[in-house]
Design brief:
alpha/beta, four-stranded antiparallel sheet, elongated, six-stranded mixed sheet, single chain
C-alpha cells in the first residue's frame, strides 16, 4: 500500500466547482433550501430563548405568586414555542425533500455529462484506462457525491448557522460563560481536525483503491476462461487479496478515526456541561449572597438552563458535523474523479470535408442528393474561393512515409508507404506487434500521425471530418461485440435506418441467414452477455452482416477468422468474400490461406514493410513470405 498511502491528489477548487455545477442546474431550489435551513437553525436558538423566558418570567413567578397569576403568560409562551418548533420541523422536512430531488437530479446530470463526454473521447483514453476504473466513476464516485450533497453539505451549513446563532445568544446572556464555552469548543475543534483529517485522507485513498479493485474484478471476469485454462485461480486470489487488503486497511483507518470522534466530542460536551453548571451555579449563588463574581449583569436560573441547553446542542451539533468530514472528503474525492473525466480532452477534429449522398445532374456533374443513393461523394468546401466541389468516393487509400508511435519516445511504424486502388484487396502479414492493426487504426484516425501523410481519394484525411471518414469505413474485428437486444437490432447497428428486409439481405450476404432462422425466435431472438449463447463463428457472421448492411465502400478485416474452426472459417470466408466484392479491402490475417487472392500483400516486421507484392511474386522472391507459406518460418 506504499503507493496508495500518499493518497490521490485533490485539485484545488473542486468544492467551488461542484457548487457552481449544482447552482447552474438547481439555483432556485437551493435558494429555497437555504431559506429553510436558516429557519430551522434560528428556530432551535429561538426555542432556547423562550425556554429562559418560560423559567424566569413564568415558572419562577408562578412558584411564589401562584399559577393563576401567570397562566396567560404560560399558555402564550408554550404556544409560541410550539409554533417555533413546528416552523423548524416544517422547514427541515421541506429542505430534506427538496435536497433529495436536487441530489438525484445532480447525479443524473453528472452521469449524462460523463457519458456524453465519454462518447467524444479518443480511443487512446480507453486503451490507457481500466474499464472497471471508469465504471467506478459512474457508481462509487457518484454515490460519494450523493452523500456529500444530500447529507453532508446541508448538515455542515446548518451547523455553521446554528453554532453562530448560539454563540451570539450566549454572548447576550453572559460573556464569561461564553468564554468558558469558547475555550472548551477550541479543544473540540482541535480533536475534530486531528481525527477527521486523518479519516478524510484515508477516505480518499479508499475511493481510489475501490476503483482499482473494481477494475481488477472486471478484468478477471472478462478473462475468466484464460484464468481457468492456465490454472491461475490461486494467483488471482492472491492478487485480489492484496488489493482487497489495501481497501480494508484504508477503510478501517478512515472509519476508526471517524467513529472515535463522536464519543470524544460527546464526553468533552459532558465536561463542558458540568463546568457550565458549576460556574453558573456559583454565579447565581454569588448574586444571592451579594458577592459579585462577574461584574456583568444578572445571571438567572433561566439563563443557566438555556446556557446548558445550548452547550449540549452545540457539542452535539459539532459532533454530528465532525462525522460528516470524512464523507465530505470522500465526496470531494469522487467529484474530483468525475471532473477529471469531464476535463479529458475530446477527440480533436479539424476536418471540414464531409461525406454526402450524390447524384449526377444533366451535365454529368456530381451534386448532393437529398435521399440515399448508391453513389457517395466527398463534399469539399473551398473557403478562399467560396465554392464547393464534389469528389466521388472511390476507395483509393494512400499512405506516404508514415511514422507513428503510441508514445513519442517509442515508434511503432517506420516510413510506411502503400497504395490501395479502388476495389483492391490489400493484406497485411507479420508477427504480433509488427504494426498491422496500427496501420488500420491510423486509417480510421483513432490516432493521428506525427509524420507522413494518409490520403483518401486524394484528400488528406486530416481534412475529412472523423465522423464522415469512419462512416465510409467498415470494420470486422476478431473480437466481436454484440449488444443486448435482438439479432435484428445487432445487425441494424451497422445502419440504424436500415429496414428489416435490408438486414435480412445483409445476413444472407454474410451467410448468417441460415443459422439465424434456426434460432428460437429467428431474427427476434434476444442476445445477452455479448451473444454468449452463440458460437464464435455465429457471432462473427452477425458482425459481417452488420458491416454488410452499413455498405461501406472500404472494409477492414482484422483477423476476423483467426479464432474459429476450419469448417466455420470456410463459411465466414465465403461471407467475407461476398462483403469484399467491389470494395477496397484491408485484411489482417495470420492464416496465409485467407490472403492468397489479395492484390497486394505487405509483410511487416517491427513496424517496417520488408516485402510487398501478390502471392505469386512473393513466392517467387523466396523471402520471408515464402518461408512463412512453406512452413520454414513461423509467425511469433
Amino acid at each position: 500500500m506504499s503507493d496508495q498511502k500518499k493518497g490521490p491528489e485533490m485539485k484545488k477548487g473542486t468544492f467551488a466547482r461542484l457548487m457552481r455545477y449544482i447552482f447552474a442546474h438547481y439555483s432556485w431550489k437551493l435558494i429555497v433550501v437555504l431559506f429553510c435551513i436558516i429557519i430551522s437553525s434560528i428556530s432551535t436558538v429561538v426555542a432556547t430563548v423562550f425556554l429562559q423566558r418560560l423559567i424566569d418570567q413564568v415558572i419562577t413567578p408562578g412558584i411564589t405568586a401562584g399559577l393563576d397569576s401567570v397562566w396567560d403568560d404560560l399558555v402564550q409562551t408554550i404556544l409560541f414555542m410550539v409554533f417555533i418548533y413546528a416552523a423548524g420541523v416544517i422547514a427541515s422536512f421541506t429542505y430534506t425533500r427538496i435536497m433529495a430531488g436536487v441530489t438525484q437530479g445532480t447525479l443524473k446530470d453528472f452521469r449524462a455529462d460523463m457519458f456524453h463526454k465519454m462518447e467524444t473521447l479518443p480511443i487512446k483514453y480507453f486503451d490507457t484506462n481500466a474499464h472497471g476504473d471508469i465504471m467506478s466513476t459512474y457508481t462509487n464516485d457518484t454515490d460519494a457525491i450523493r452523500q456529500l450533497i444530500g447529507q453532508s453539505l446541508p448538515m455542515l451549513f446548518q451547523t455553521i448557522l446554528s453554532v453562530t446563532s448560539m454563540l451570539i445568544m450566549m454572548l447576550c446572556y453572559s460573556i464569561w460563560l461564553t468564554i468558558a464555552v469558547g475555550i472548551i469548543s477550541i479543544s473540540i475543534v482541535y480533536v475534530t481536525r486531528k481525527f477527521a483529517g486523518a479519516s478524510a485522507k484515508y477516505m480518499m485513498i479508499q475511493q481510489k483503491t475501490l476503483a482499482a479493485e473494481e477494475g481488477f474484478i472486471e478484468e478477471m471476469m472478462n478473462g475468466q476462461k484464460v484464468v481457468k485454462v492456465f490454472c491461475h485461480e490461486e494467483e488471482s486470489k492472491e492478487d485480489f487479496k492484496r488489493i482487497n487488503e489495501e481497501l480494508f486497511e484504508a477503510g478501517k483507518t478512515a472509519n476508526a478515526n471517524g467513529n472515535i470522534l463522536m464519543p470524544i466530542i460527546h464526553n468533552i460536551g459532558n465536561i463542558m456541561y458540568v463546568l457550565l453548571a458549576l460556574i453558573g451555579g456559583l454565579m447565581v449563588y454569588s448574586q444571592a449572597t451579594n458577592v459579585s463574581l462577574t461584574g456583568t449583569g444578572v445571571v438567572t436560573i433561566g439563563i443557566i438552563v438555556s446556557f446548558l441547553n445550548m452547550s449540549r446542542q452545540l457539542s452535539q451539533t459539532i459532533g454530528q458535523a465532525s462525522m460528516q468530514v470524512p464523507m465530505i472528503a470522500m465526496g470531494l474525492a469522487g467529484a474530483n474523479r468525475v471532473f477529471e473525466l469531464l476535463d479529458q480532452e475530446p477527440e480533436y477534429d479539424e476536418g471540414y470535408v464531409t461525406l454526402v449522398y450524390a447524384r449526377k445532374n444533366e451535365k454529368g456533374e456530381l451534386e448532393e442528393a437529398p435521399e440515399r443513393t448508391g453513389l457517395w461523394a466527398w463534399k469539399h468546401p473551398h473557403k478562399a474561393e467560396g465554392t464547393v466541389t464534389y469528389e466521388e468516393l472511390k476507395g483509393c487509400v494512400e499512405l506516404e512515409n508514415v511514422d507513428f508511435g503510441y508514445v513519442p519516445e517509442k515508434m511503432v511504424l517506420h516510413d510506411i508507404s502503400l497504395y490501395a486502388k479502388p476495389g483492391q484487396k490489400i493484406a497485411f502479414v507479420g508477427a504480433t506487434g509488427a504494426g498491422k492493426t496500427t496501420i488500420t487504426n491510423l486509417i480510421n484516425r483513432f490516432y493521428d500521425i506525427p509524420d507522413g501523410k494518409i490520403r483518401y481519394d486524394g484528400i488528406n484525411i486530416n481534412k475529412i471530418k472523423k465522423h464522415d471518414l469512419r462512416h465510409s469505413l467498415g470494420i470486422v474485428l476478431q473480437d466481436v461485440n454484440l449488444f443486448t437486444g435482438t439479432v435484428m437490432d445487432n445487425i441494424r447497428y451497422g445502419r440504424l435506418v436500415a429496414t428489416d428486409e435490408e438486414c435480412i439481405e445483409a445476413a444472407k450476404l454474410a451467410n448468417a441467414h441460415g443459422f439465424i432462422e434456426r434460432l428460437p425466435n429467428g431474427y427476434q431472438t434476444i442476445l445477452t452477455g455479448n451473444g454468449s449463447s452463440l458460437s464464435q463463428g455465429q457471432r462473427q457472421l452477425i458482425s459481417i452482416a452488420r458491416a454488410a448492411v452499413a455498405n461501406h465502400p472500404v472494409m477492414i478485416l482484422d483477423e476476423a477468422t483467426s479464432s474459429i474452426d476450419t469448417r466455420t472459417e470456410a463459411l465466414v470466408s465465403d461471407g467475407m468474400d461476398n462483403l469484399m466484392e467491389g470494395r477496397t479491402v484491408f485484411v489482417i490475417a495470420h492464416r496465409l490461406s485467407t490472403v492468397r487472392n489479395s492484390d497486394a500483400i505487405m509483410v511487416l516486421d517491427h513496424g517496417r514493410i520488408i516485402e510487398r507484392g501478390n502471392h505469386e511474386d512473393l513466392i517467387a522472391q523466396k523471402g520471408i513470405y515464402y518461408q512463412l507459406y512453406t512452413g520454414a518460418f513461423e509467425l511469433e
